[in-house]
Specification:
635 residues, 7-stranded parallel sheet, elongated, disordered N terminus, binds nicotinamide-adenine-dinucleotide
Length: 635
């Protein structure tokens, strides 16, 4: 029985089905007992319907219980299998908060309309006391068949939970956690201080509507009640704001891990974002949202920003760094899309398809092979041998092209590609020239009149990199003079801001020139890749502290956290911080399991893995080290 309470005694009343475990045990029992029964699915459906009837008050609770027992045709020999199934289906947040369940075992009561025979083995394995389990009991016949239940038990009746609570007469504060209306009935009867609707496994509108607080996990319950929890901060309290119509996959990935996600279709202007950012921990944007100093001044909770695109010019990376905010982007997610378009365009241009297709639309049939070539055996010149250049190198070679490349940096040649020592060397020998350099400002007009002059007559020219890299009037002249036999251009020095704005450019109307509206990387696959890649990076940072691939932070790839706590310390890059961290840890006799340090420009990043048992005061001391920007602890 429950011990005589002290004045401050608190009781935690916890439901079993769909709360302590992820499932309804009677459904699971049915799946086992009805195995091989040809009507199994129908019976399981009926069991479910009976449950619903009882929940809606259309039949009495005891009648529903008896009908379900009759339908189940279960035997005591089915119970070990049921217990094995249920033990694998304990709710995740209960699993990870075993310490709370053990430490508060005297105050935790499991009150359920399920059955002791399977509840006790499951809950006691997590530290609950068997004498604190209140549930129904089965009746068996001589052969071990389950034929009924103890009808005298209040839990077998309507309003059974309040009746039991009255009998228990608990003196102290009572908190009820459950997913069902019968759990709320305890509070309704005035027998509990607060009712917490537990929504980790199921959400019931009527239950949520009556709850004092919705708790998506046990972590949230522990957090709001200042009880010891395995997580320093429940994930549902970490707010993710995704702007600019980011692919829904990203939302899904954050939600799967329990984060609260808010989606906004368009971009937000500076003032709107400065307002919305206040309670946001993770921000996802594409190219239109400007993350400025003003926005960041209000971003007190912001841990990281994900650019769901390649470029990061829209983010004030320096200001982020100074505030310990880590930024990521998606550097390769659309690489393949650009490469495929480039290959397609080369073939189309080498075959004069643009002209031929236009003629067909005008009703002209002009069948001729003159001026049409295969790409096989042609010399392809790649200017810029980065992500896209190298990938294109491999694919083009597979199609039989001879690949040459020029890059400012010495890069490993893939396959049979040959490196050119100068840009001019490449321009002079290649039949097809394609630009894949980055958009740094020194690359403005990298290809102008002089460079076109160097190229072979009848060259095919592609720009899918950045508009300002090519001197457009020089390209127009080269096309008109026949120097360039065909060109494909996807990027322009000035690009319309919206689909309603006219595209004005000297390249319009030129023969054998393919123009596309900056869609080299725009495919469904690329969008989905980005939506997988960026959340992966952000989650890896939040959950493990990994900064690998960040565009403004020291890159550290950390091992997984194993039976240790991880301290994450972000500070200004001044001498002596590591020494101070370690001397504080030494003063507290804390054993360091692993330590990782990296610095970049003005920021230093130290990760220290320590033994699980430690004096919590150390955290305050570490936070107080001068020049600390951010500190957090992973459990
Ligand atoms: N059209 C589109 O939709 C689309 C999509 C994705 C990327 N892009 C653009 O494609 C370009 C390449 O992207 P990436 O991911 O391969 O970039 P990357 O940074 O991986 O590679 C760029 C390479 O260019 C080299 N480089 C820079 N300046 C050079 C110069 N003057 N001469 C020779 N080499 C030089 C760099 O050393 C680097 O190896 C970028 O400009 C990017 O913005 C366009």
């Amino acid at each position: 029985m429950v011990e005589i309470p002290t004045k401050e005694q608190k009781y935690f009343i916890i439901d079993f089905d769909s709360t302590f475990t992820k499932v309804e045990a009677m459904d699971e029992l049915g799946k086992i007992s009805l195995q091989g029964n040809p009507k199994r699915e129908d019976i399981l459906r009926e069991i479910h319907q009976v449950t619903e009837l009882a929940m809606n008050g259309d039949i009495s609770f005891s009648e529903a219980l008896q009908r379900r027992v009759d339908l189940l045709k279960a035997h005591k020999d089915h119970l070990p299998e049921l217990i094995a199934v249920l033990s694998g289906k304990v709710s995740d947040s209960f699993e990870r908060n075993r310490d709370f369940l053990n430490e508060f075992a005297d105050s935790i009561l499991i009150i359920s309309s399920g059955f002791r025979e399977f509840i006790v083995p499951i809950v006691t394995a997590l530290g609950i006391k068997p004498e604190n389990v209140y549930a129904n009991t089965f009746l068996f016949d001589d052969s071990g068949n389950i034929i009924g239940f103890d009808a005298e038990n209040p839990l077998a009746k309507d309003k059974g939970k309040p009746e039991l609570m009255r009998k228990l007469n608990l003196q102290g504060d009572v908190y009820v956690i459950g997913d069902g209306y019968t759990d709320y009935e305890i509070k309704e009867a005035g027998l509990a201080n607060r009712f917490y609707a537990f929504t980790e496994n199921v959400e019931r509108g009527k239950v949520i509507a009556n709850a004092d607080h919705i708790t998506p996990s046990l972590d949230e319950f522990l957090f709001v009640n200042k009880l010891p929890a395995s997580l320093s901060y429940p994930k549902n309290r970490i707010k993710v704001l995704l702007l600019e119509n980011i692919h829904p996959k990203a939302k899904e990935l954050f939600q799967e891990q329990g984060f609260t996600v808010e989606m906004v279709k368009g971009a937000l202007d500076e003032d709107e974002l400065a307002e919305r950012i206040r309670d946001v921990s993770v921000l996802g944007i594409r190219s239109k949202t400007q993350v400025t100093k003003k926005v960041l001044e209000n971003a007190n909770k912001l841990m990281c920003v994900g650019a769901f695109c390649i470029g990061t010019n829209q983010i004030d990376l320096k200001a982020c760094q100074e505030r310990g905010i880590v930024a990521f982007n998606a550097p390769y997610s659309n690489t393949r899309s650009v490469v495929e378009l480039a290959i397609g365009e080369m073939i189309i241009l080498m075959r004069q398809i643009v002209e031929k297709s236009n003629k067909m639309h005008r009703g002209e049939w002009d069948k001729s092979a003159i001026g049409s070539y295969e790409i096989r055996g042609k010399k392809l010149g790649l200017v810029g041998y980065g992500n896209i250049g190298t990938q294109l190198s491999v694919v083009a070679e597979a199609l039989g092209m001879k690949v040459y490349y020029y890059d400012l940096v010495e890069k490993l040649a893939l396959g049979n590609a040959q490196r050119c020592k100068t840009l001019h060397e490449l321009l002079e020998i290649c039949d097809v020239i394609t630009l894949h350099t980055d958009g740094r400002k020194e690359n403005a007009n990298l290809i102008g009149a002089k460079e076109f002059e160097r190229m072979k007559d009848g060259v095919i020219f592609l720009n899918l990199s950045r508009g300002h890299i090519v001197d457009v009037p020089a390209l127009v002249n080269a096309v008109k003079s026949g120097k360039v036999a065909g060109a494909a251009v996807d990027v322009f020095p000035y690009e319309p801001k919206t689909n309603n704005e006219e595209f004005i450019n000297e390249l319009r109307g030129l023969p054998n020139v393919l123009l596309t509206p900056h869609i080299g990387g725009s495919t469904e696959e690329a969008q989905e890749n980005i939506a997988n890649f960026v959340p992966g990076k952000l989650l890896d940072f939040i959950n493990k502290g990994n900064t690998f691939g960040s565009v403004n932070f020291p890159n550290i790839q950390l091992p997984d956290l194993n039976d240790a706590h991880r301290m994450i310390h972000i500070h200004r890059n001044v001498p002596g911080i590591l020494a101070q961290i370690n001397s504080i840890l030494a003063n507290y006799h804390i054993n360091i399991r692993g330590q990782y340090l990296n610095t970049r420009e003005d920021v230093g990043y130290v990760i220290t893995d320590i033994d699980k048992a430690y004096n919590k005061e150390v955290i305050t001391e570490l936070k107080n080290i001068a020049h600390t920007i951010k500190f957090r602890m992973l459990y």
